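Key idea: predict the complex, not the pieces.
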Amino acid sequence: MSGANVPPVTSVAALYGIAHRIEADAAERYAMLADQMETHNNLDLARMFRDLARAERLHADKIRELAGAIGVGDDGGPIGPWKADSPESVDLYAARYDMSPHEALRMALAAEERALAFYTDLAASKVDRTVRDLATSFAAEEREHVALCHRLLERYPPASAARPGDPDAPGDR
Amino acid sequence: MTAGANSVSVAMVGSGGAGVLTTGEMLLEAACAAGWNGLLTRSVGPQIRGGEAASLLRLARSPVECMADQFDLLVGIDWVNAGRFGDEIPLGESSVLVCDPAAGAPPPMAANAKRVIELPIAEITKAHPAWRANMLALGAAGHLLGLDESALHGVIAKRFAAKGSEVVAANVAAAAAGARAVDTERGRVALAPVAQAAAKRWLITGNEAVALGALLGGVRFAAAYPITPASDILEWLAPNLTKVGGTLVQAEDELASVNMIIGASYGGVPSLTATSGPGLSLMIESLGLATAAEVPIVIVDVMRGGPSTGIPTKSEQSDLNIAIYGMHGDAPHLVIAPQSVGDCWLSAQWATGLAEALQAPAIVLSDQFLGQAQTAITRPVERPPTGKRRVADGANLPYARYAAGGDGVSPMAIPGTARCAYTADGLTHTERGTPTSGAHDHVAQLDKRRDKLDGHEYGPLWATIEGDSETAVLAWGSLTGVVREGIAQARADGVSAKLIAPRLLLPTRPAEMSAALAGVKRVLVVEQTHGMQFLKYLRAHYDLPAEVSVLHRPGPLPIRPHEVRQRLIEGGSR
Amino acid sequence: MNAAEPLKCRPSDYKSEVKPIWCPGCGDYHVLMALTRAMAALGLPPERIAVVSGIGCSSRIPAYTNCYGFHGVHGRSLAVATGLKIARPDITVICASGDGDGYSIGGNHFLHACRRNVDLAYIVMDNHIYGMTKGQPSPTTEPDFDTALAPGGTGLRPFNPLVVALASGANFVARAYSGNPNETAELIVDAIKHPGFSFVEILSPCVTYRPDQRSWKDRVHPAPVTPTDDPARAARRLMTDDGFNLGVLYRGHRAPYTPPTAAAMVAPESLEEEFEV
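Result:
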């Protein structure tokens, strides 16, 4: 769904704009999740999402810096160029108030993989070489993020199946 | 008590197309043109058109606020189904009956009237097909009353002007024939003439007066859902609001009408709706919203017989409980009850100003009698203090819409005002308007909403207080005029009483009421309810003297002045 | 989108400090995102916009914006919005609701708001369930959906809000999916710009009581046809579609409601004259 209706990226300037928007959207999404987890008292996860939001924000700033004089445009205006979500935005519907860090990292991994696929596809497409080169470098960066997610997932193994559920679960009351 | 030369009461009855309603209006208009005062109510059957109808008039030398104890003159154009008005048209031995011998036997209520004047309506109209029966009756009634014929003919000319001079001439001729046909020797009920009134006067109904008062008070938006007997208010406002740059919208139901006015008022435009008991019941939830969100609105409740559909066309005071206590939660608001047709104007204007100034819903508790009675009133010179909404301008930031403290009235931001955007909320909220379930905020906001109403200085308009005596009669709304007349009657018998009629029913005024009751040893409560709602309200909120009695009756039968007199005389107060 | 256009407003300019109480994963977060993006795209100052709602999860949305908000009683948001818009035509009024608030308790107002055609945008976040009261069937719940209040299902045919809107006279009818926040934002912009009463039904999953609705993302699809201005064609499409067609489905030309105006204004005091004897 996320890649649906991606506008054609035909210039380096357009790619900087798109890339910046992808990171900014991802940061916004993580910040929303952090807020949600704070509201629902899942404070460990709130911290994790807050960290992820900060990381994506830094990434967005880095792209702006890289773009230099070319700039990142206006990100295409308030409404994104995708019907659905930016490639790197986590799927909000996968969020649950009692989700574990492992599940959260799985969400993040899926988002990073979508971003990676976006840049990889672009790098392999028939666009201008400068665009392909830039897409390749962005893909490399996303590959690092994917690897980071995998490393983190090892640190946060899936919760045991025997983990007791919420005795006050909303569906039961 | 027939007031003879000072006051004469006339009932005109007829069925299906007899035109008694128009006749009543014309007689009142002519009487007023001749310098008299008057009061007109109507009674109709359940049919939309063509049913039996009665015009009930009281004409007097000075302004009157209630119907008299009995009718001096009953004019029957026909008697079809007239018996249903029996209870509403009390007649005495001195009463005069005007009827067509061809119309058959008069209904039982006419049996008391010993003086009968024949008016051969069928015979005359047979000879003159262009003459209407009701014009004959109008001419006959006018003649018996001693009404100046030119005043009557003037009203006829005005009424039929659009139909051409031939029609005018025929109707004038019919009225003149009616006058000639009755034998005044058998029962003249003439009213003493008066000089033309010096002051400007109006012929107006309570519903029109409410509408005018609210409009003059600043109302510029109304939402309407039709209901008897309140629709007249909305129908008057529809064209007239437009003329002053306002708007009336017809809503799909009362739930919508009250919420539409809440929306409009939230937008900064003083707003009103009018309804009756069933509609008020539907609006109650949103009245609580207006209380909690502090949105000023005015709701006019023209009371009719209840509960449920009750008697839509008859007056009662039985919405007092719902007006005072209807809302869930602790929901302070304003309830203001007009006491006469003219007072409808003042009360509505006052209520509008109070609602705006105090950012609270105001219920104007009128009733079918006041609303639909048409009467000549002297142009009200007394105008209530004007109320204006306190508005936020963005100077005090961050803006706290519901800031407590002070007099409890916090400036309201009107959409469009920069830096003051807030969400008005029916949920318990903080001073900034954010929903909360905390005890501190809940109590602080409840205190705020109570204090702003309780702490306001309402001035002498809160009640009508007349006379001084160890006996007080407590009444409200349209019963005020009945009690005033009953007290006057008792005074002629050497019995005195003080009248205390609160206009402001909520918030209550314990200190003012205590002052009004100082020295009072006995209280008579007079109200038109079955369940003694006013008595219970008084007992709940005020310290009454030990000796309390109550005269109460539900609609549709009005309480008449002589009943108040009787109770005062029995009470033996001097 | 024209990248050369200067950025005037950001969606964050329209978000308040108040943190939503919605469940993590709730579709309404996306709607809030779409709504603030739409507002930014329109470039309206927040104080020129009013968001009006009733009661329910979706109706919490006004306080989450930086605009003027009104959070009223259950089911009456359209009445409040109608009064506000008629009294203040200069304010952009957006009315927000849910399937319980808008189609059940507020159903009558929905019919008449469509009919009245006041210049409002009405967005309904439909999750086929009462969320705030914890999982009772709403007018759009499937007949066999098991709940505590209706064990085994209601057995009732779901309400079709788009058909009702069209039949009642709505001037603009669209369906959106909250998981497509940009498309939803575009549809809200379109609804606000279109004169008259514009209705946007937003499929917005309830992940708590309807976890099955996570699959909506695979079921939604763009409407296979372009918007029509022919109500008869629109009706046929709406009555035969699968409930997951997204986009503008009807765009009418009916002139919006305007209150009557007087040829000449008079002073309020002059209205007394008609009563003079």
